[in-house]
Amino acid sequence: MDVREIPISRKKGFSKSVLADRLKREDIAYVHFKELGSPKPVRDKLKATKDYKTFFDKMGEYLSTQEQVIEVAYSYISSKNCCLMCFEKIAAYCHRKVVAEKIKERDGNGLKIKNI
Could you tell me the residue ranges of all domains in the chain? Predict the structure, then answer.
């Protein structure tokens, strides 16, 4: 589950189409959730301030407006093994931890989240 707002990359093989094709060859489904990506104004503010607390707070606020997409993401997680992916390699600095928390809240049933 790609949770980048814009799924393109200068890193070879990490843009949406190429990545989806490569995963398909390994029998791994690719799904992109643009709406679960960090909005540009929120990303820009983080770049300017390096204030991760505000960044994660703003992401939480934003994701609270994305209940329908959270529900779709939850339906994938409820029926398949899933991995949230973004570009940031350090989970502590990535918005995907907030996405995972929102999905876990939706679950309300002890969903386990692991960083791999």
Answer: 16-107
* Number of neighbours of residue 65 by Cβ within 10 angstroms: 10
Dist. CA 19–CA 63, nearest whole Å: 25
Distance CA 72, CA 1 (A): 11
pLDDT tens-place string over residues 47-98: 999 999 999 999 999 999 999 999 999 999 988 889 999 988 888 899 999 9
C-alpha span between 3 and 36 (Å, rounded): 5
Instruction: Look up residue 111 and give its two tokens.
Output: 């969903």
Q: Cα separation of 14 and 67, whole Å? A: 27
Instruction: Name residues whose C-beta falls within 8 Å of residue 72's C-beta, 6 or more positions apart in sequence.
Output: 33
If we measure between CA atoms, which residue out of 113, 93, 92, 91 comes closest to residue 102? 113
